[in-house]
Design brief:
Number of domains of chain A: 3
CATH architecture of the largest domain in chain A: Up-down Bundle
Oligomer: heterodimer
CATH class of the largest domain in chain B: Mainly Beta
Largest sheet of chain B: 5 strands, antiparallel
CATH superfamily of the largest domain in chain A: Cytochrome Bc1 Complex, Chain C
Number of strands of chain B: 14
Shape of chain A: globular
Radius of gyration of chain B: 38 Å
Strand order of the largest sheet of chain A: 1-5
Strand content of chain B: 5-15%
CATH architecture of the largest domain in chain B: 3-layer Sandwich
Order of helices and strands of chain B: HHHEEHEHHHEEHEHEEEEEEEE
Number of strands of chain A: 10
Structural class of chain A: mainly alpha
CATH topology of the largest domain in chain A: Cytochrome Bc1 Complex, Chain C
Strand order of the largest sheet of chain B: 4-5-6-7-12
Number of domains of chain B: 3
């Protein structure tokens, strides 16, 4: 570096400092930076999943703003005269015509549309996997229950933002999805027809729904979501990130690398990685080719109609439910559609409530910053896998026609398979997962007590062959036994110390029962104790 | 930062929570943070310089890709279609813009991450955590402040103010709710009525011509709309969403339902095309069995037996339209559907 540039940088530095001083005098940025500039974040590949969600959300907002510059959220009918020949002369809504224009007449418009849609699909998938990470490692425990709820709301709102978004082009596929939604709304007892009339501004499809979905899609829902994302991040910073157990890592500290410079580079760089990968995907793979089928008409439909993946389980529920209808006193209870609608809500509500249920069962009021390995919470892990199983079974139900045509199966058998396995699958998954977790706990216990299998076979003087087990380091021993194991709750004596019969509420009895299901003998493997270790290592050495 | 300084989680050991669920202890003491192992770049300046060049190369590739993006934007006409193996025929703009943008972004990310991983310090550092909950002193101060504030407001002492305030606050959102009334009309009997009425001819959807009985062949599925409903009409979509009709011809002997036979003409039967499940238009017809299938959710109806549901999630048969032939020899409706078409709803009965 020459002397001139060196003096230049010298002169520049105070200028930057002066700007910072100016801002600090008004915003107090130095205090903020003092607390956060070198904030420590722990490192683990699974902590990156939330970042994928955050970045795809930003990409969706950026590309979405661009799309609003060209999209016309109107159901006025026009005759298409754009450059896509097969549609020329066809009557369609302005919404559909402007989406065709974005795809065919705006340079780069198709790319931005595809990045927007791909990013939405990835955003939802990212949230799904991120939530699984948080669930299976117990990161939702105190003090993070509220942040779990924020995340849950983001997932649910993301689903509806996605739905209202892919409904906007008013092509044949999206209109069919809207029709399905309207049919489901009609099934709501007492108020269903009113909700439908108010939402659609009259009969289906009417002339209002695109404009209304538009303001919901670009303003209402993303506005709420942006607020939730900010709150979610503030809480992550405020609580400090969780970490896995390990040497030097305790419930009272956080070990890792500082925000400046390491995470600035890694997390900031990761935004560009996510954006880059999505751009390449959008360049190579068509998503939602709205030009393939033409504009929506209520009397036309295509085969193989599928929603975006995150709506697939709702689609499955509605497809496999038997068509029950009860007609009484001049009214119809459309259970065949309404039950799926309710189950849809309940399945999601279960996610929201779980942290509170678990903390009620354990009765644990402490803060938890050390993550569980999934195996060390066998019942929770098994419940989570059971939930995911039922979700996946319903995804199969939602694509029953696709599975039937691709695998040459009877659609009736697939439907019956889904009907049975929606109930049986989670039970099997629960049992299998729990066995696997317990098996892994046993292996950890063996590893602690007997050491690591070294793969070295030794022949003893009397001819016996044994495998040499290497003892674990203190760090490994600590990591494998750092998890806490609850003891199951007990009902306690039937009478108190004065011999008076104690009153036990039904809730307390249930709690004890559930606590036993989580923590009783056989539902978790007691981790190795120091005494056992001592006895074995001193008794007959390692072999 | 030495590992000895790190406070142990031992304090947790003897903690027991209020509800009596005991927690097992940590049997093996925490040895503390392992010593930092330097990377190749930390000790070998040549390796560090290699990393530096790799990062700079990635950033340079990104710049080139951005230039490529701008060039593609200028060069390719928006409607240029090219063949690229194995993608097939694709838009040249979409492919070139997407790839160049993707590379430009990805290389910035890869460069930054590589920089962070190889050249920035990877020595682990420790932050202490502090309990989220406030200390008892802080809590006591807050409670006292709150009590002072509440007392000074006199909200407890003057219930008249309090109650009227809550009343006013509870009522004012009602204005907003009332405004929502303008979102749409009341349902009334809108879901029960369609455009069909006595004497309306059945118009072939494809040819836009009135249908004669002889136009309907055995084994074919014909779609029809009511006479007078034109495709460019303002409310075409609203009307066709209820009035869409499908017509098939079945040998009268094969029709199992007596009323269906009465409402047919010479084996020609007309059913609502709108599925009774959630309203998709039905479009798949199996000639041999006279089954129709909704492609959305696979509800299957038997058109030779009153369109009853034989599989899938639909809850009731497709409504039948009573048809006959007028003086001119065209098929006509003999009235509206006698039950509401489409998905079931609370008032359907």
């Amino acid at each position: 570096m020459s002397t001139t540039t060196a003096t230049e940088t010298k002169r520049k530095a105070p200028a930057g400092e002066r700007v910072a001083d100016w801002a600090d005098g008004r915003l107090g940025i130095y205090s903020l930076a003092k607390a956060n500039m070198r904030k420590i974040f722990p490192d683990h590949w699974s902590f990156m999943l939330g970042e994928i969600c955050l970045y795809s959300f930003l990409i969706i907002i950026l590309t979405g703003v661009y799309l609003t510059l060209f999209f016309h959220p109107s159901m006025n009918e026009v005759e298409y005269s754009g450059s896509y020949v097969p549609m020329q002369g066809i009557r369609m809504t302005e919404a559909y015509a402007s989406t065709l224009d974005i795809s065919f007449d705006v340079r780069g418009g198709l790319l931005i549309r595809q990045i927007h849609h791909w990013a939405a699909v990835i955003f939802l998938a990212g949230m799904f996997v991120h939530m699984m990470r948080v669930f299976f490692t117990g990161a939702f425990r105190k003090p993070r229950e509220i942040n779990w709820l924020f995340g849950f709301l983001l997932f649910v709102l993301g689903m509806f933002t996605g739905f209202t978004g892919y409904s906007l082009p008013d092509d044949l596929l999206s209109g069919t999805g809207v029709r399905f939604t309207q049919g489901a709304i009609l099934s709501v007892p007492i108020v269903g027809t009113y909700i439908s009339m108010f939402l659609f501004g009259g009969e289906f499809p009417g002339h209002d729904i695109i404009a209304r979905f538009y303001s919901i899609h670009i303003l209402l829902l993303p506005g709420i979501m942006l607020g939730l994302v900010v709150a979610h991040l503030i809480l992550v910073i405020y609580h400090k990130h969780t970490q896995f157990a390990g040497p030097g890592r305790t419930n009272k500290n956080v070990v890792g690398m500082p925000l400046l410079p390491v995470y600035m580079a890694k997390a900031g760089g990761f935004f560009f990685l996510v954006f880059g990968v999505i751009a390449v995907i959008a360049a190579l793979f068509t998503i939602n080719p709205i030009w393939a089928l033409g504009p929506y008409r209520p009397d036309q439909v295509s085969t193989g109609a599928q929603p975006d993946w995150y709506m697939g389980f709702a689609e499955g529920l509605i497809r496999v439910m038997p068509g029950w209808e009860i007609n009484l006193w001049g009214h119809t209870l459309v259970l065949g559609v309404f039950i799926p609608l309710v189950v849809f809500g309940l399945v999601l509500a279960a996610i929201a409530l779980y942290p509170f249920i678990e903390s009620w069962i354990t009765g644990d009021k402490r803060e938890h910053h050390i993550l569980d390995r999934p195996r060390n919470a066998p019942t929770r892990t098994a419940l989570g896998v059971a939930w995911v199983t039922s979700y996946m079974v319903m995804l199969i139900g939602g694509g029953n026609d696709i599975f039937a045509t691709h695998f040459h199966l009877s659609i009736n058998s697939i439907t019956w398979f889904v009907r049975i396995f929606y109930f049986l699958g989670p039970v099997l998954a629960f049992i299998v997962t729990k066995r696997i977790c317990l098996g892994l706990q046993r292996r950890d216990r063996d590893k602690v007590l007997h050491g690591r299998e070294s793969g070295i076979i030794k022949r003893l003087p009397h001819g016996e062959f044994v495998e040499v087990h290497e003892p674990l380091s203190q760090a490994q021993l600590h990591s494998l036994t750092a998890h806490e194991q609850y003891k199951p709750a007990h009902l306690g004596p039937v009478t108190d110390e004065n011999g008076v019969k104690r009153k036990l509420t039904r809730g307390e009895k249930l709690r004890v029962k559930l606590s036993k299901g989580y923590f009783a003998d056989g539902n978790q493997i007691p981790k190795a104790t120091a005494e056992e270790y001592k006895e074995i290592s001193e008794g007959h050495g390692h072999h | 930062m030495s590992s000895q300084e790190i406070s142990e989680a031992e304090s947790l050991r003897h903690e027991q929570d209020a509800h009596g669920t005991e927690v097992a202890e940590h049997p093996f003491a925490d040895p503390g943070l392992p010593p930092h192992k330097p990377r190749k770049q930390d000790i070998d300046e040549r390796a560090a310089r290699r990393s530096e060049r790799a990062v700079a190369l990635l950033f340079t590739v990104s710049m080139l890709a951005t230039i490529g993006f701008i060039a593609s934007f200028v060069i390719f006409p928006v409607d240029k279609i090219i063949y690229v193996w194995p993608l097939g025929h694709v838009s040249a703009t979409n492919l070139s813009l997407g790839l160049t943008l993707g590379i430009a972004l990805f290389c910035i990310g890869a460069g930054a991450v590589h920089w962070g991983r190889t050249l920035m310090s990877d020595e682990e550092m420790v932050d202490e955590r502090h309990a989220v909950a406030a200390t008892p002193e802080v809590k006591a101060k807050v409670m006292a402040d709150f009590a002072d504030g509440a007392r000074e407001s006199a909200i407890g002492r003057r219930p008249l103010i309090r109650n009227t305030m809550f009343g006013a606050l509870a009522m004012v959102p009602l204005s907003g709710v009332v405004l929502l009334r303008e979102l749409g009309p009341l349902p009334e009997d809108k879901l029960r009525k369609t455009l069909w009425s006595k004497g309306k001819q059945l118009i072939n959807m494809n040819t836009n011509e009135p249908l004669r009985p002889e136009d309907v062949a055995v084994g074919s599925l014909t779609f029809a709309k009511p006479e007078g409903l034109e495709e460019h009409a303002e409310d075409f979509n609203n009307q066709i969403a209820k009035a869409a009709l499908m017509i098939v011809r079945i040998q009268p002997d094969d029709i199992k339902d007596r009323r269906q036979l009465e409402w047919s003409h010479d084996g020609i039967v007309a059913f609502s095309k709108i599925c009774t499940h959630v309203g998709c238009p039905i479009s798949l017809y199996e000639q041999q069995t006279h089954h129709v299938l909704c492609p959305c959710h696979q509800s299957t109806f038997d058109l030779s037996d009153g369109a009853r549901v034989i599989f899938g999630p639909a809850g009731h048969p497709l409504p039948q339209l009573r048809i006959g032939v007028n003086d001119k020899g065209y098929l006509e409706a003999l009235g509206d559907f006698d039950v509401p078409v489409g998905p079931a709803f609370w008032e359907r009965g």
